[in-house]
Amino acid sequence: MVGARWLESGGGGRTTLMKDDGGDKGQCPRWLEQSPPWTDGALAVCINESLGDDELRAVLSKVEHDKDKEVFGLVCKRWLHLQSTERRKLCARAGPHMLKRIAARFTRLHELDLSQSVSRSFYPGVTDSDLSVIATAFTSLRILNLQNCKGITDIGIAAIGSRISSLQSLDVSYSRKLTDKGLSSVAQGCPNLRVLHLAGCKFVTDALLRALSKNCSNIEDLGFQGCTKLTDSGITVLVAGCQRLKHLDINKCSNIGDVGVTSVAKACSSSLKTLKLLDCYKVGDESILSLAKYCRNLETLIIGGCRDISDEAVKSLASSCHGNLKNLRMDWCLNVSDTSLDCIFSACRELEVLDVGCCEEVTDSAFQGIGK
């Protein structure tokens, strides 16, 4: 019929198409009396009844954005259940008994972020009991962020290491109760570990570095900021077994000096891209010269506060790493002068960030030709 149109009517979890071809005012619309032509007089089929779980999962797999996936789960309880079981990534604030509920709902997580679970006086945030739930429920987990989870101890982290062999990334920065004992369990039980961040874990020693060297040869990203008990000896052992390191953060590791950095430069010469040595007071020219000699792919170097570094070492670095160096921080390098900057500006054409704050020997003249 000319002018006919099909309207969508939803209710009670059903979706039905109905025909509207107008009609006189005051009269019952004809679409109330007619069914769509393809139903042959029967009620239109609800999408919930016509599609099985596998088909709905196929639909969900085509949804790219997380917010759209959330909308998918708002249709009805069945769709919410499917959306939950298919979810791979979750960021949550854990509260009392919350992890058990999360484990019951999200059964196939690959990534779990609990770093926002701030401790309170009446609740310690994430605890060892929570880690036990995670270790039991999420055996296929790949990425776990427990940053600032101050309530966890070696007992909980050992449970993670013993049960989640698939783990590839672990961040326990500022979880200050952790020691070598619990973290070594992770090294032994998670051979596929690629990323480990331990900033602020002040009880970590060279013993953990030996465990990583022995068990985690594929590790690429290590963060040890503020782990002041680490020494040159431990770093040397570490890189003997972990030669694929791309990113190494040993900021404020005050007991690491030229011997340790030189061993890193030699062992990880082709892979190393980022090295952070902020306030490593024992680092001097020997470290920089070894980086210049071996690490031509270096992109980021942080040497702020390393006050024994001279112009000659910086010039050698700029000449050798000029093709890739993008970020160079040298604040408080008191021996660096205009001579270093002249070489950096002429050689390092890919440089994006340069910090020379509080370098007292640097003058205005060093920047006069920077735009040429």
TrEMBL record:
Pfam families: DUF7885. InterPro entries: FBXL15_LRR, Leu-rich_rpt_Cys-con_subtyp, LRR_dom_sf. Residues 133-207, 212-328 form the F-box/LRR-repeat protein 15-like leucin rich repeat domain. Residues 1-28 are annotated as: Disordered. This is RNI-like superfamily protein.
